[in-house]
Structure formats: C-alpha cells, structure tokens
Amino acid sequence: MKVKIKKLISAVLCAVTVGLILTSCSAGKKVPELPENTIPYTSDKKQLGDGKLNNSVKLSKGEYADIDFGSEVTFDTVALYEKGDNCNEFNIYIEKDGEWELVYKQDRILKYHLCFIGEVTTSKLRFEIADCNKPVEVNELAVYLADKTDRQVKVSQYLRLDANDFKDLKDDDGFSGYYDVVTDPILFGETYMDENANICFNHSEEFFAEQIQALKEIIGDRDVRIWCCIFFDQNSEDGSRDYNLTKKFINENIDLITSNIKAFTEKYGIYGIDYDWEYPNTLSQWKSYDRIVEETAKVTKVSVAVAPWGVKFSKSAVNAIENVNIMAYDLFDDRGDHSNSYVAGYDAIRKVRAFGFKDEQLLLGIPTYARTTDKSEFAWPTVRDDGRELGKWGKIVKDYAYTDGNTGEEKTCDGYLNSYAEARDKTATAVDEGIGGVMIFRAFCDSPYTDEFSLHRGIKEAIDERTDY
C-alpha cells in the first residue's frame, strides 16, 4: 500500500510551534520538543504533527509514505515519533533527478529517533518500513534544518595506555587524526591512589611520562585538553571494592589527596582529573565523593563519569565539576540491544539532567564496542576488530564467538554496535539539546581515523554541520 502524504503548510521552512509530544509508554516519559523551524504533514484522514497519539499513520512491512513538498526545500534532519516499538528497519529517500536516492536507514525508532541526514534539497521525501514486528504507528514525522551553534562542542575520549605505545604512533594518521575531533582525551586505567594517597602507575612513572610527552607531540597545536582518570577505590582484604573503606580513605586523607593531585597535574601539564567511582550507594558515601570533587576542584579541573541513575552529588559538588561524562553504554533495552539511540541517547540525557547538572557540563557517552544480546560479560566485539565491514549503516555483528569465562563453554551470539550513522545521530541529538558534547568510550576500540566510517569521523561530520565554531 502506498500512503500519499499531503503538505499541511507552506513548503518552506517557516516557523511552526509544535507542542510537547508525549509517548504512549506507561511511564509517560517526555520526548523532545521539535524546533520551531519544523514542517509537519497531514494525510487525507490521519494527521502527523499535532502530537496526538490517536492521529497517526500505520505502515506495514514494505509500505511507505511519500511526502510532496510542492517545491524544493532544504533540511538536514528527520524526526520520528513512534507509538510502541515495532520497527525493525526503516529507510528514508529523497527524490533526485526523477529517482529515489537513499539518504538514511536505521533499525529502531523507539518512541523518538533523530535521523541525521546531512543537508539535502528536494521536493519529495519517502519514508519506508523495510521490516517490522507488526504495523509501525508513527504519530509524528517532521523535517527541519538545524540551527547552527557558535559554541565549541566538546568530544571527550577515554584513552588507555596498555595496548599501544604512543611513541610508535607519531606518524600514524589513523591515530593522530582522532584529535581533529577530540577536544578532551582522558588517560584511563593507568593511575590510581594507594591507601596512603600516593599516585601510583600500572606500568611505571617513567612510561607514563613518555606517553604524555608523545601524546602532546601528536596533538601539536590543536585545541585539545589532556585529562587523567585517577581511581581512588579502596579494596578489602579479599580484593573486592569496599565503599565504606573508600569513604574513610577520602575523609582521612583529603588534604594529602589534594596536594598530591595538585603536584601531579602541574608536573605533567595535565588539564584536569577525571573521577570514576562505580558506585557510591549511601548518602555518607556520596558526601565523601562530594568532598574529593570539591576539594580537588580548588587546585585543578575536575570531570566525573556518571550513570543515568542514582547520582546524588550536592549542589556545591555539581557546581565544582567541569565535564560530566554520561556512561550511556552497557544499557540494554527490552530486546537486548545495546546502547540504542533513544535509551542511550535522548533518554540518558534527560535522566542525568534531572540530577541538577547544567546542560553545558554534559557529554553523552558513545561506545565504540558492542555487547551481545545475551548480555554476556565475556563478549566485547569492537568497531575496529568486528565492525569495519558494516559500512555506514550496519550495526549487527553476526554470530560473535566468545568463551564463557564462568563455564568455559564456547558460545556465539549477535553483537549490537553503534554504527557510523548512529554516532552521527547521537552527536546531532547532543548539539540540538544544547549539552556540552559527546564522549567516546574508548579510542582504540574504534577503527582508525583513516577509515571512512570510523565513529570519530561520524561524530565530526555531525559537529561540522551543526556548528559555526
């Protein structure tokens, strides 16, 4: 069946105020307001664009809606709102020289899906359901040309030192190219505090110093700020994390912690310190987290990594933080898909906002690795090793083989990656929502920057189109 969608308003990008759209889920979660320069549409009997769930269009597998603008219009984004979660794959085409040209495809809509198209000009658009569980009910479809921002969009990047020697990468465009987009690399997994608040190194301090110097040479004169993540978790005698012991460590050693942090950042010319305490679970533990954040923020910049749940920083601690790296990964939806664009995109931003952070502090986490749909803790496909043949749109690593570390059993399961297209979508969402930027976890799981569909490149494409910085 072919559904012809007729235009509701003038086919120019004029201002149309669209009210807040409510999803049909039982929790009543809000989804984003559309920008004012949005064009909604109607069909003969059912309306798209008024935000009412009972006025929608249903499309089954193989069905599509053609939208005729009446004249050429320019846009770069399509926003979709679905009642339910029935879509498995959809395509978006524009008419060009009398032919339909594919400009976007993805799997799920999941209540709300921002589709980064890239700037196009056309008089017709086609929205097609390629696969679904049952008819897909779309209660909003709108296109717009995003307003450009003149602010810097930050891109933080977790960067481990255990797999590569930076001295060997000075002439490697696949690595150095990352810093054409990354603004805030965070050296991760190399430094920690012992029980006496000394800063220790997993390799050696000499190795760390060499790596810092090599990284600075690779970055050159680009506007990049180097951070270092320092773990301060304290362990019990059996080696497990002891949250109360960590609280005690902070409260008893805060002056020494602060002075050692100050000396460390000054010695190595590090912009700031990143903290990743997973996770305090009592108010007294959160108060000790407040304390280390607030006190060390007096001597250096501080960033933190937080999950989209359970954050209980005080207002004064929130105000002391520069960057909040949202751990919007390892989040599984009801189908077992990993880090999709709604649950680990807009909805993660919405949840972390509720903890009192300012928008400019927030950086949305984008994973460069997959998780298998069986949620195994032993299966970690990566874009670099397993996703380089998936192209711009592909995101499923089929039949990923791994060994179950508990049973020794050899298993296979599909892995769910963020595609190049999804990295663009999430970045565009971050910019449109006005937050500080995005976070890449982690560098060497992505394909080299010289690859056409490196996620770093996808992030840069969205930033370049949506900023005038």
**Mean pLDDT figure:** 89
Low-confidence stretches: 1-29, 41-54
Helical amount: 10-25%
> What oligomeric state do the depicted chains represent?
single chain
Account of the 3D structure:
This protein is α/β, with parallel strands linked by helices and 469 residues long. Helices cover 23% and strands 32% of the residues. The protein contains 9 helices and 20 strands. The chain has helices spanning 173-176, 205-219, 243-268, 283-296, 315-320, 342-353, 383-386, 420-432, 455-466; strands spanning 2-7, 38-42, 57-59, 64-83, 87-96, 99-106, 112-132, 136-144, 154-160, 184-193, 199-201, 227-231, 272-275, 301-306, 323-326, 362-367, 371-372, 396-403, 410-416, 437-441. The strands form 3 sheets. Strands 1, 2, 3, 4, 5, 6, 7 and 8 form an 8-stranded mixed β-sheet that branches. The chain has an 8-stranded parallel β-barrel with strand order 9-10-12-13-14-15-16-20. Strands 17-19-18 form a 3-stranded antiparallel β-sheet, with no helix packed on it. α8 runs parallel beside α9. The model is unreliable at 1-29 and 41-54 (pLDDT under 50).
